[in-house]
Amino acid sequence: MSYLDRHLNSNEKSLAKANKTAWIFARELFFALITAAAYFLLQRFLPDYPAVATYVTIGLAAVTVLLLIHHIFEFVSTSIMLTNKKLCSTQGVISISTMDVMLKNIDCLQVKFSVLGRLLGYGTLIVVTDSKEFVYKKISKPQKFTKKINRQIVRATKIRNPQPQIIETQPKKMTITFGVTPSQQKLAALYLDRQKNAPKPVAVKAAPRKQSTVSASSETAVQQ
Question: What does the alpha-carbon distance between residue 17 and residue 148 come to, in Å, rounded to a whole number?
């Protein structure tokens, strides 16, 4: 278990990690080739001075070994971890330098590539906060790691600021009275309630009246 894994809180979990690229050992490989080539060339063109070839080879080999040890420590000790709440990192073996930044405090993420780094897939990751800037050189696949950080920042922001729920309520009626005592208000309320609950009168339709018609012959008989 790494140093960062041991110092996670109980409610945290690791989501992604970024480390140094293995291409940092390319320089040591180049120096090893130069050392071997120098030894064979000196042995061929200066056969009378074998000590020169030996001393030059030992010097170049010592530089190669020192660079290799330095890069091994750098490769093992450098690690960047993304959790569900923060971004943390550690560097160093004897004196450890750590970084612990909450996701909400990250202002900007920058990735820089050299020509060789773009071809081999490594670059420099820069984390900018409100108070400091953290630089990590020769990180493997920094663009992919940056996308994961941005995705988690958006997710944490949504959890921290949930969408408000809209609840529709009916407005309450308000009555304002002036110069009326509370007892009078109660009586008025009771009267209004009784008026509302009182049965409505039933409308009765009246039957139409029959019109009497008198014939013309009857009217003449009466006159005679």
Answer: 10
The residues, any chain, with a CB within 8 Å of residue 137's CB and separated by 6 or more, are: 124
From first CA to last CA, the distance across the chain in angstroms is: 138
Phi-psi region of 69 (alpha: psi -120 to 50; beta: other; left: phi over 0): alpha
Residue 86 has φ and ψ, to the nearest 5°, of: -150, 175
Rg (CA), the chain: 47
User: DSSP character for 110?
Assistant: E
58 in Cβ contact with 25 (< 8 Å)? no
The answer to whether residues 16 and 84 touch, using CB atoms and an 8 Å cutoff, is no
Residue 1 pLDDT > 50 = yes
pTM equals 0.61
Q: Could you tell me the two tokens for 170?
A: 């009916």
- Check: CB of residue 103 under 8 Å from CB of residue 85: yes
Alpha carbon distance 3, 73 (integer Å): 14
Looking at the chain, the number of H-run helices and the number of E-run strands are: 7, 7
Burial class (CB in 10 A: 0-12, 13-18, 19+), 135: exposed
Q: What is the structure's pLDDT at 111?
A: 93
CB count within 10 Å of CB 197 equals: 7
pLDDT digits (tens, 9 = 90+) for 204-220: 555 555 554 444 444 44
Angle at 213 between CA 212 and CA 214, to 5 degrees: 120
